[in-house]
Amino acid sequence: MNNLVKRGASKQFEEGAEALPLDHVAIIMDGNRRWARERLLPRAAGHQAGVKSLKRLVRYVGERSLKYLTVYAFSSENWQRKEEEVSYLLKLFSDVLDDEFAELAENKVRLRFIGDLERMPAKLKNSMLESMENSRENTGLNLQVAINYGSRLELTQAARAIAMDVKRGLVDPESIDENMLSRYLYTADLPDPELLIRTGGEMRLSNYLLWQSAYTEFYVTSTLWPDFKPEDFDLAVSEFSHRNRRYGGD
Ligand code: IPE
Ligand code: IPE
Ligand code: MG
Questions:
Q1: Which residue CA neighbors atom 5 of ligand 1 most closely?
Q2: Ligand 2 center–CA 30 separation, angstroms
C-alpha cells in the first residue's frame, strides 16, 4: 500500500504506518440482482446500479493513485443465464463504454479488457479493442475489466498457445516455468493482486484469477455491489493492512 499511504488523502490510508504494499486490487462485483430483488426492481435496475457503483469506485481509487484495479464484470459461465439477461448485459457494456470512455481517458485511465473477446458481438469487440488501443499511453489508473473471463479458459488457452509455440520451435519445453506461463495469460503485463474483494457474501472465487491470486489476501463483505461505497473500500484496505503475509515462509 505504499503508494496509497504516501500519496493518499484518506485518514484510513494514512493510519497504517507500516502499511503493506498495495498496488493492485481485484474485485468480484457480486450481488446486483439481489440488490434489485430487495427493492422489487427488475434485474436490469440492479445491473445499472452496479455500473454506478463501479464509476464511483473508479473515481475514488483514481484520485488516490491506486495503480491497478481489476473488476469481474461477466464470467465465462454467465452465458448460462437467461438470454434476456445476457443480451441486456451486453447492451449495457456497450452503452457504458460509449458513454464513459471520454471521461476515463480525461482522467488518464488505461483501460484493458481481459477475457476471451472472440465471443463478443463484433461491434462491442471492436469498441473494446479500440478503447484499449486509444488508452494505452495513459499513465493513470490501470483499469482491467474481466469480460467473458474464466481462469480455466485462460489457462487452457495459455497451454494451447505454449504448445503451438513449442511446435513452431519458438519455445523449448525445458524453458517453460511459472514466469513464462504468466506471460501467456490475459494478465501478462500486470502484477498479481495483493487484495481481492468479493461483495455479496459468497466465499468462493467463481473462476476468477485462480493463478494470479495464489497468495492474494481475500476480503469478503456481505454488502451487495451496488451498495459498495468508498468507505467500504477503505475498510477492506484497512483490514488488509493488518494481514500477515507469509507466502509459505515463517
Ligand atoms: C454480479 O451480480 C453481476 C454479474 C455477474 C453480471 P449478479 O448478477 O451475480 O447478482 P446476484 O449475485 O445474483 O445478486
Ligand atoms: C461472479 O459472480 C461473476 C461476476 C461477478 C461477474 P456470479 O454471480 O456469476 O458467481 P456465482 O454463480 O455466485 O459463483
Ligand atoms: Mg452473483
A1: 74
A2: 6
pTM of structure = 0.93
Q: Which structural domain, as residue segments, surrounds residue 206?
A: 24-149+193-241
- For ligand 2, pick from 30, 147, 148, 151 the residue to mutate: most ligand atoms within 8 Å of CB: 30
| Cα torsion angle, 243, 245, 246, 247, sign | positive
Q: Which three cell numbers, joined as nine digits, stand for 68?
A: 491497478
Ligand nearest to the CA of 31: 1
pLDDT per position as a tens digit, 53-76: 999 999 999 999 999 999 999 999
- The total number of structural domains that make up the chain: 1
pLDDT one-digit tens code per residue, 194-242: 999 999 999 999 999 999 999 999 999 999 999 999 999 999 999 999 9
- How far from 168 is each of 123, 127, 135, CA to CA, in Å? 33, 32, 33
**Is residue 74 lining ligand 1, measured as CB closer than 6 Å?**
yes
CATH number at residue 50: 3.40.1180.10
